[in-house]
Amino acid sequence: MFWNALAAGALLGQSVSAQNMLRFACSQLTIERADPLVTPGQAPAPHTHQIIGGNSFNLTMEPGVYDPPAKSTCTTCTYSEDFSNYWTASLYFRSPENGTFQRVPQFANVGLQQDGGMTVYYMPYSAVNNKMTAFKPGFRMIAGDPMSKKNNRVSICHRCLGNGEGFAPCDAKDTGELPNKYCPKGIRATIIFPSCWDGKNLDSPDHKSHVAYSNSGGLGSPKCPSTHPVSIPQVMYEIMWDTGRYKNDAWYGNGKQPFVYSFGDATGYGQHGDYLFGWKDDSLQKAMDALPTGRCANANCSVLKIQSAKDSMACKKKQQVVEDVGKDGSWIKELPGGAAVTYA
Ligand SMILES: *[C@@H]1O[C@H](CO)[C@@H](O)[C@H](O)[C@H]1NC(C)=O
Ligand SMILES: *[C@@H]1O[C@H](CO)[C@@H](O)[C@H](O)[C@H]1NC(C)=O
Ligand SMILES: *[C@@H]1O[C@H](CO)[C@@H](O)[C@H](O)[C@H]1NC(C)=O
């Protein structure tokens, strides 16, 4: 949950210097079937997403045309110049007794104050000589793949909380699958994005090929491939699911567990995250440049503007695709969009 680059570097057996990173909360903006990256303009999109960041989030956000910092009037993130949008699938509990679904509530990560949403990281893993190039306006990318039937634990992983902390995310104590045991302290889902860029394209048809991992997926090493030579901040999401309330021995074990992602995946290999850059002006570059100086770390970066937790939680956006996606503990008969429950 809380760890630092030095500890993670040591665990990876790399010589990562003791550098700071950004680690901050973004509360829920909206939960709806919208996806401006994969299905722009489509209402409804195939499955439910939970979305955080700038309130200019929209069904269509054309790269280089739609400018989130200019269009947003608030953000759910700690850093008030960050109007990016970050989104992932929602998680549902499917009652083994009657097959109805309840959207799993969330809780705040260690040391942070937030209303749902995620913890967002910008990390310096692939930085060479402490230099990283921040994303350009219009940049977007996806990590993970909803169609995946393969374990990719180093980038997409789950932690059954309460097994000891302080080790790197997506290490061997985590699982690619949703844990098939009861997790009284919750399940943390982690999504790790690539840390290298081709230096040219803001996007690509699969929203992936313009970026690359430096280290066969997962946390980076200070070395980008020659096809993608530019070191970018390594973005990571953490989502805290409050699974402790779903306690019943009969629901877990022997390969069983009662949770399913909004697109029907009950194994968890298809968990994925979408990123759409929207920091104001050169604020992210300034923060990345300040990481090695010690003046910028976690949720207290002195070169960025910080808003109160109250203000970040007050930023909300009404659903544009109006429907019940499972609000405040309600039970719904099927996953929004009607995805069938599948296993890898
Ligand atoms: C979002 O898209 C709709 C429909 O295209 C448009 O009317 C609206 O102005 C957009 N919102 C913002 C904040 O630009
Ligand atoms: C379905 O089962 C869950 C427990 O698994 C229960 O809380 C809920 O009330 C049930 N709903 C109906 C309609 O029976
Ligand atoms: C944030 O950093 C400043 C110095 O840059 C320090 O004075 C302040 O105590 C820090 N706040 C927190 C909450 O760590």
UniProtKB/TrEMBL annotation:
Coiled-coil boundaries: none
Residues of the signal peptide: 1-18
Domain DUF1996 residue range list: 35-279
UniProt keyword terms in alphabetical order: Signal
Protein name according to UniProt: DUF1996 domain-containing protein
Domain of life: Eukaryota
